[in-house]
Structure formats: structure tokens, C-alpha cells
Write a structure and sequence with these properties.
The complex is a heterodimer of chains A (65) and B (575). Chain A is mainly alpha-helical and 65 residues long. Chain A has a domain at 25-59. Helices cover 65% and strands 0% of the residues of chain A. Chain A contains 3 helices and no strands. The longest helix of chain A has 19 residues, at 26-44. Chain A is globular. The relative contact order of chain A is 0.11. By secondary structure, chain B is an alpha+beta fold. Helices cover 29% and strands 27% of the residues of chain B. Chain B is globular and about 75 Å long. In chain B, strands 1, 2, 8, 9, 10, 11, 17 and 18 form an 8-stranded mixed sheet that branches. Chain B starts with 38 loop residues before the first helix and ends in a 7-residue tail after the last helix. In chain B, a hairpin with a 4-residue loop joins strand 20 (458-461) and strand 21. In chain B, helix 2 (57-68) runs parallel beside helix 5. The chains are: A mainly alpha (65), B alpha+beta (575).
């Protein structure tokens, strides 16, 4: 999994990601996100990289000391 | 809605993988007579090397395989017929590997004549076709003498096996014989058998539990397992009708005529169609299988004018289950006693058939002193891997077909919508991954180069007549088969000859169109099909087992081949 910067245009991507959801209901947004994940995952293809990305996507649990 | 959920208003579905007979014209099934065995009356307890419990497709395949190898066995079945307690069909779809096994047993021609061949499958969602496949265009199926699949009612195959066992002899089929108690120790296994003429005890060296999903042996042996059950409910209608849909497998993930739930449509023998409808989660099995409800469902799919003869209706729920070990002392678990899967992909019965084919030659080879008793442990290593794979694959399908509400359903909707637009997403559509001959990657008796199934391909005998891999496997019986490809040196020829004299192994030289014959036993493979099927790639030799699996391939006919043979017979087994 590549954790160093690979975006050609990070701000531009982020803006398009927000724009495509504009005006959608939460259910429509969920479906769009799901479609997007599947499309992007197929661009990567590599099973190990995809597995690491899925693990890295988990939201870290807050630890109570 | 009341605050507290009402008590379940209907009987909970039985979590069996049996299709319970409810109504319909049904089939007339053969009845086999109970014959009082010699033990009854004499009072003496007889000891048998092999006792098979259960006369379903796995138990009968094992019995027939042993009969073919000339090995004596007793089979005990609590019923006196094939099929499920006088009901009807269970499995309907038999894979190439199973058909190759049935060919070895001598019943393939009858299956091919009675059954329906198919290779085209189509998947629909709503009113759109999402994807289609034609298995004849997929290279991995087209080498074998047997087709990718034949659809036929399971009880026909069971009936053919019973008749074949009677022809072959060696196996004593005992009907109306229910095993009610079991013990085992270092010396022997003892079974108590109840029959219409009284009960008796029988002793066995090896017991094969092929009794199915309700087996009492799990408890008797303290077997442990992984198990999972869900709320998915289905209802089968086997019907004949006046329209004739195409001879293809059609599956709807979301059928407009079934409240957007899944539907399977498949043809079997006798012009009977199997229609399998997904019901609402936790649906009432009594209601969904009521004749008027079934007919209304059929009319929604085929139109109100189609005349329908309902042959059989079976509502079911499925569970998945896999034992942790397929051997407990003298007991071997096979078929549905080893693992239980949902029906998607035809991975139930076909796996049981391969379980039987795997164990038969090992039992024969050990009994005849051709192999070390440790060979029998490899049944667990190999078939447990197959069982675990099949459970995993079918669980994934079940999850696609019955996604949990929320994100699981959203991802399915996303996958279906993408699949309609882009080929890549069709790989995510999972209506069942059809059963394959599972490869063994952690077998104690296979080399890293082995573990794959070899298809029943054609070649030419020395005189130019047509032969097939199964002919070679018939010839070796329970021994191993070395195929040596291409021309060989005089030393190699003499080494091979010596090897076949000293070890339970037979050797055949496989020649290209123009190669010189140097071994007494040789065949011609002008198109290279046997070479391709044997997975030898650049190697010189392939070591085949009687179940058509590859033990190893290798470069030189030297100590590597000798080591592979020893390992393949359970000597020096490596874990």
C-alpha cells in the first residue's frame, strides 16, 4: 500500500468528490460511494494492496487509558 | 405493531439440507428387499474390513468404487429405496469430475442418456441480462471426454449405482438396517444394527459415515465442527409444463416476478424443470409450499395460461457446517457428514462423490498391502481442504444472494448496476461458483508439483484405436501410474521396468506423433492432450493416482520419482 503522496491534484480530486455528491440523498450517496469503491478497487487489482487499504480504512478505536 | 414480537406463528424450519417432501405427483422410486443377514439368528458377531453407513450418493459411490476394485464391504442403509425417504430429487447438477468418476464406475452412459447436458448460463437482474457464459468456450472444460455438466435427478444416479453394485458383486447392500449404537477402540469398531427381523452387532476395521446431515456419528465420535446458519429461505418447485424454455441455466438475482428476490431455473431429466424461488427472510415453509401459493408463483413467472404439473415441492433453509477433522479413529466422514453447504454451485453432492473416489483406492491399497496405513490419513488432509474451500465459496455466494440490510445490500446494488455497464464488475456477481475438482495444496502424499485433477482425455493405443485416461486408471486398479513423455534412454527404460516389478506402480510411455516406442506399454498422444491434462509442462514424467489426481511431476526418472512413489503410497509422508 502506497502511503506517500500519489495524487496529481489532491485538492482537485477532493473537490470533485464533494461535487458529485451534491444534492444526493444519503441513500443515493451511499450507492455512489459503493460504486466508486468498486471502480477504484478494480484499478488497483492487487489483492494484497486492497487488503491493506481495507485494514487501513478502519477508523482507529479511541483508547481509554 | 405490538411492542413485543409475537410467538412464531408457524413451525420453525428444520435446518437440514434435505428437501422435505410436501406435496406433488412425486416419483415412483425403486424398492429394494430386506434380506436377513447371516449374523441374525446365528448370534455370531462377524468382522468386516469395511462398513459403509448410509446409501446416499456418497455412500453408494464409495460402495461401487470398492466393488469395482474387488474389495469387500458392507453397506447399511436405514431405508429401502433411493432418494429422500420416498420423496424425490436432491442434487440435480453433476460436474465433469463426478461424471468422470461415474464413467470409471460404468454408469456414465446411462446418466448421459437420461440426463440433460447444458453449458450456457444467463444471469438477470430486473428485466436486464447482466451476464452470460458458455462453458464449452472455456478451455478448462473442453479436453475431457465428459461434458462440463449433466443435470439429472440424484435418485437416478443412486439407482444406477445400486444396480451396478449388484452386477459387480463384492459389496453386500443391506437395506432397512439402521445403526443405533457405535463404539470403537484400538482393536475394532462395533456397530449395533436394527432391522425388521431384529437387531445384531457387526464389527469393522473401518467405518465410513455417509449417513448425511442428521448423522449420529458426530456425537458418538465427539466430532467438532464450525457451523453457521442464516435466515435465507427458499422453495423448490419441480414442474412439467406446456412451454419449453431454452436448455440453459437461468438465474435471476432480482426477479420482478418474485418480489425482486432470486430465482433459479434449470432443466432435469423427464422434461422436469427445477424452479427454485428465494422467499422472504424467515418465511413460513408451510405457507410458501402450499399448492395454491406455488401455482400462483409459477403463473407470475410463466403467465396464467401455462399448464403446470407439479412434480415435487420442497421448502428449505440451509446451514453451512464443516468438521474440523474428517477422520475419528476408525471412522471416516464423507459427503454431508463431512461438510454441509448451501446448494449454490452444486458443491454438495459433487463433493461427496469426490470424497468417495478419494477414499476408495486408499482403502483398497492399504488392505492389499500396496500402501502404508498412513495413506488413509491423507483422506483427511485432502478432503478437508476441499470441504473448507467449498464451504467458503458457498458462504460467499449465500452472502451475495441474501445480503444483510444496509451496506451489504448497497454494495450488491452497486455491483449489479456496474455489471450492466462494465465487464469487470461481472466478476462480482455471485450466483454460485460451479463445483470444480478441488486442488490439494497441503496433502501429505502429494508433491508441490502435484495435487491437481487430470481430466479424462483421449489418446491413441499403440494399435491406433482410441483410449482414455479412465482406461489407464481401470488398468492400474489401486496402484499408481507413471506416465513418461517422449523418447527415453535405454537406462531409463530399464529403471522403469525394475520399478514396476518392485513397487505397486505401472508405467506407460506417452509418445508424440513421430516418437519411437521404447517401452512395452506405450500410447500415442498426437495432439498433446494427455500431456496438457497431466500438467507436466516442461517435465518428463507424471505420477497419477487411481482417483485421477496427480501425485507429482518430475524431470528425470531417478530417485525423485522413487521418492514421489513412496510418498504417494503413504510411506515417508510429509506434513
Amino acid at each position: 500500500m502506497n502511503t506517500t503522496l500519489h495524487f496529481q491534484d489532491a485538492d482537485g480530486f477532493y473537490e470533485r468528490l464533494l461535487d458529485v455528491h451534491a444534492g444526493l440523498s444519503p441513500a443515493e450517496s451511499e450507492l455512489l460511494n459503493a460504486r466508486l469503491i468498486l471502480l477504484l478497487a478494480n484499478q488497483i487489482g492487487d489483492a494484497r494492496v486492497l487488503g491493506e487499504c481495507i485494514e487501513a480504512a478502519r477508523v482507529p478505536q479511541q483508547t481509554t487509558a | 405493531m405490538p411492542d413485543t414480537a409475537p410467538a412464531t406463528p408457524y413451525r420453525a424450519p428444520a435446518f437440514t439440507n434435505g428437501y422435505e417432501f410436501t406435496q406433488g405427483a412425486g416419483y415412483t422410486l425403486p424398492k429394494y428387499p430386506f434380506v436377513a443377514p447371516p449374523e441374525l439368528g446365528s448370534g455370531t458377531v462377524m468382522r468386516h474390513p469395511i462398513v459403509i453407513v448410509g446409501g446416499g450418493i456418497s455412500g453408494l459411490t464409495l460402495a461401487c468404487s470398492l466393488a469395482r476394485l474387488g474389495v469387500k464391504a458392507v453397506l447399511l442403509d436405514e431405508d429401502n429405496t433411493v432418494g429422500v425417504k420416498g420423496a424425490s430429487s436432491r442434487g440435480i447438477c453433476y460436474t465433469q469430475k463426478s461424471l468422470e468418476i461415474f464413467d470409471k464406475l460404468g454408469i456414465y452412459e446411462r446418466i448421459a442418456k437420461k440426463g440433460i447436458q447444458w453449458s450456457v448460463g444467463r444471469t438477470f437482474a430486473g428485466h436486464d441480462e447482466v451476464m452470460a457464459f458458455d462453458l464449452r468456450q472455456q478451455g478448462n472444460f473442453n479436453l475431457s471426454t465428459q461434458p462440463p455438466f449433466i443435470n439429472i435427478q440424484q435418485f437416478y444416479i443412486e439407482g444406477f449405482l445400486v444396480e451396478r453394485i449388484h452386477e459387480l458383486g463384492h459389496v453386500d447392500l443391506r437395506w432397512k438396517s439402521r445403526v443405533t449404537a457405535f463404539t470403537q477402540d484400538a482393536e475394532v469398531a462395533t456397530l449395533t444394527v436394527e432391522t425388521p427381523a431384529g437387531s445384531y452387532q457387526i464389527e469393522a476395521d473401518h467405518v465410513i459415515d455417509a449417513t448425511g446431515s442428521h448423522t449420529p456419528f458426530h456425537q458418538w465420535c465427539g466430532a467438532t465442527m464450525q457451523s453457521r446458519r442464516g435466515d435465507d429461505r427458499w422453495c423448490i418447485a419441480d414442474v412439467r409444463f406446456t412451454t419449453h424454455p431454452p436448455v440453459e441455466r437461468h438465474t435471476w438475482i432480482e426477479a420482478p416476478f418474485n418480489e425482486n428476490r432470486a430465482v433459479w431455473q434449470h432443466l432435469m431429466a423427464d422434461d422436469v424443470w427445477r424452479l427454485d424461488y428465494q422467499m422472504a427472510p424467515n418465511a413460513d415453509p408451510d405457507f410458501v409450499s402450499r399448492e395454491d401459493v406455488v401455482r400462483e408463483r409459477l403463473a407470475r413467472q410463466f403467465g396464467p395460461d401455462v399448464e403446470v404439473e407439479v412434480v415435487w415441492v420442497g421448502p428449505y433453509a440451509y446451514r453451512s457446517q464443516c468438521l474440523d477433522h474428517l477422520r475419528a479413529g476408525r471412522v471416516f466422514f464423507m459427503g454431508d457428514t463431512a461438510k454441509i453447504v448451501s446448494p449454490f454451485g452444486a458443491r454438495g453432492g459433487n463433493t461427496g462423490v469426490s470424497d468417495a473416489d478419494n477414499l476408495a483406492w486408499k482403502l483398497a491399497a492399504v488392505q492389499r498391502g500396496h500402501a502404508h496405513p498412513a495413506l488413509l490419513d491423507s483422506y483427511n488432509a485432502e478432503r478437508l481442504e476441499a470441504a473448507q474451500q467449498n464451504v467458503q465459496v458457498t458462504n460467499r455466494t449465500a452472502r451475495f444472494l441474501r445480503p444483510a440490510d444496509g451496506m451489504e445490500r448497497t454494495f450488491r446494488t452497486a455491483a449489479i448496476s456496474l455489471a450492466k455497464e462494465h465487464p469487470f464488475a461481472r466478476a462480482l456477481i455471485n450466483t454460485g461458483r460451479m463445483a470444480v475438482a478441488n486442488t490439494y495444496t497441503r496433502s501429505s502424499i502429494c508433491d508441490a508439483t502435484g495435487g491437481q485433477s487430470v481430466q479424462n482425455v483421449a489418446f491413441q493405443w499403440a494399435d491406433g484405436s482410441a483410449g482414455r485416461v479412465n482406461d489407464l486408471l481401470q488398468w492400474v486398479s489401486d496402484e499408481l501410474l507413471v506416465l513418461v513423455f517422449g523418447e527415453i534412454s535405454r537406462t531409463v527404460a530399464s529403471n522403469l521396468q525394475q520399478l514396476t516389478r518392485l513397487a505397486p506402480v505401472r508405467a506407460v510411455q506417452v509418445l508424440g506423433a513421430k516418437d519411437r516406442a521404447q517401452a512395452r506399454e506405450h500410447v500415442r498422444d498426437p495432439q498433446g492432450h494427455l500431456r496438457e491434462a497431466s500438467h507436466v509442462f516442461g517435465h518428463t514424467w507424471a505420477l497419477l493416482r487411481p482417483d485421477g489426481y496427480l501425485a507429482a511431476t518430475g524431470e528425470a526418472v531417478d530417485s525423485d520419482l522413487v521418492a514421489a512413489i513412496e510418498r504417494g503410497l503413504g510411506l515417508n509422508a510429509q506434513d
